[in-house]
């Protein structure tokens, strides 16, 4: 039986997110040694991605750990979110939003606290799909098998009815292990063609 539900990753797929090199530039401007941010905030970033800290708590911890001015801290978050949100993959977005009502749709994203609000404001993702599962809201991240099960439950579909598109091999393999059809994103034309090959006519 062919798939009847398409689930997309967001960052690196629906959002084009090349690395901008903002962090070492910011560290240099702030007078910090290279690697300071990741060294001091690794646990904070993890907590933010799994929702064990609120956005305000993440900001407060960053303020305490980095010991920089408020202006520098504002610059830090601005640069981070600019890279995180990237730019919209317009072709993929247009294709995806045209799938309903023939197919069910959803997003599954390893995310960070504050992502839903910013992505909705910039791109209106919640307006074009039924379900968005964010890691920071559910406390699970790909490739944890439980997040694929949860996504199926929220969409009301069986695993073998889902085709999933992601740019991270581990996430695609996790989806396949959960019984989904998995496609690794390399470019937009390839991705659309491979996803459509799984869909029920």
Describe the structure.
It comes from Parafrankia irregularis. This is Putative hydrolase of the HAD superfamily. Keywords: Hydrolase. This protein is α/β, with parallel strands linked by helices and 201 residues long. The chain has helices spanning 22-29, 36-50, 55-66, 70-85, 90-97, 115-123, 135-138, 145-155, 169-177, 188-198, and strands spanning 5-8, 15-16, 87-88, 104-109, 131-134, 162-166, 181-184. It has a 5-stranded parallel β-sheet with strand order 5-4-1-6-7, with helices on both faces. Helix 2 runs antiparallel to helix 3 (55-66). It is elongated and about 60 Å long. The model has no long low-confidence stretch (mean pLDDT 96).
Shape: elongated
Counted up, domains total: 2
Average pLDDT for all residues = 96
Regions with pLDDT < 50 over 5+ consecutive residues?
Answer: none
The name of the CATH architecture of the largest domain is: 3-Layer(aba) Sandwich
Count every beta strand, where a strand is a DSSP E run of 2 or more residues.
Answer: 7
Biggest sheet architecture: 5 strands, parallel
Order of helices and strands: EEHHHHEHEHEHHEHEH
Radius of gyration over all CA atoms, rounded:
18 Å
According to CATH, the fold-level topology of the largest domain is Rossmann fold
Helix % is 40-55%
The CATH homology group name of the largest domain:
HAD superfamily/HAD-like
Proportion of beta-strand residues = 5-15%
| Total DSSP helices | 10
Q: What is the rounded distance between the termini?
A: 11 Å
Q: Which structural class do the helices and strands define?
A: alpha/beta
What is the C-level CATH assignment of the largest domain? Alpha Beta
How is the largest sheet built, in terms of strand order? 5-4-1-6-7
Protein name: Putative hydrolase of the HAD superfamily
GO molecular function, one term: hydrolase activity
Keywords: Hydrolase
Organism: Parafrankia irregularis
